[in-house]
Structure of CapA family protein:
Amino acid sequence: MKAIKYISHLAFTSSLILLFGCGQSSSTTQVETEEPVVQTPVEEPPAEPEPVITTASVYAIGDVLLHDSVYNAARVNDGFDFDSSFERVAPILERADVAIANQESMIGGSEIGLSSYPAFNSPFEIGDALQRAGIDLVTTANNHTLDRGVRAIENSINHWNEIGMPYTGSFLSEEDKANIRTLTANEISFSFLAYTYGTNGVIPKQPYHVNYIDLEQMRPEIEKAEQTTDLTVVSLHFGTEYETLPNESQTELTQKLADLGVDIIIGHHPHVLQPPKMLEGVDGNQTFVVYSLGNFLSGQQGDDRNTGGIIGIDVVKTTEDDVSTFELKNPMFYPTFTQKSSEGYYEVVPLKSAKPELFSPVSNHMSQWLPELTIEQ
């Protein structure tokens, strides 16, 4: 009812206006209206951009040194099958963003004659198997690089190129040597360099055939790597064979490399495990070093020489305001053991399954300088 009354009142008022307004044409009726109230929105301060965090894992394995007992056991028809050797550890390698192997015996191929200690030459097929197992790059600077001369080096490198496997440590030319190998994973870039203490007294035909440990020659290459990528990884063939702790020359050299800004150092040659450690460079930078990863696949005898492993470290990149910082986190070690399988071939298996009694002492040995090291199995 209120609505009806209100409408009638409006109709009556309108009639009066029309009646009297006809005689007063000069008058104008003004209707006052209220200006709408406009509320100015309160501006929120811009949100701080969240830092962008990415992570890449780097794994490495020790010496792949093929004695005749190993490659003879892998013969099939007209070639060799090493896939079975890595079958039980391939899932660990495959989960890495970047995985590195030290191919200690050159893969010069069967055409120049395979050979074992003291002058090694291995089948091409070991390179193929490593790639299928998850390896992304091989290092080839070691005391056996020159065992079979230039032909073995050229054959080896040609095969690495044929299958698309990056290599470093021995080269075909000065131009090849100057091309620092790099890999990128999850927007984090890595440079790779490799050097050896010596080549068993054999003199290279050309200086680019093998990289030697010489700090004055290493320095410009490391500086170039530092300017090229986010992180620098250096593999060193050094130390005393069968010694379970690094010697003074190893610790001095790794500290010098840390001071140059090297981020990760992977050691080989002793054929037994030496523990990892986190170093601090002169500028306060982190350097992760493992002094020796022992043998990964070889025909050497003895539990200590058949015990090796997969070392891993996470690289965490944090980008904020266009500035990136890097941290090395979550070091891990996966101990392995090389044994002869029931079918006769050599296989790399988890240490705990092959030699459970060794798992605890090996774990303690490897974590003695790095308590945060996670031992996996």
About this structure: DSSP finds twelve helices and 17 strands in the chain. The longest helix spans residues 2-21. The first strand starts at residue 52 and ends at 65.
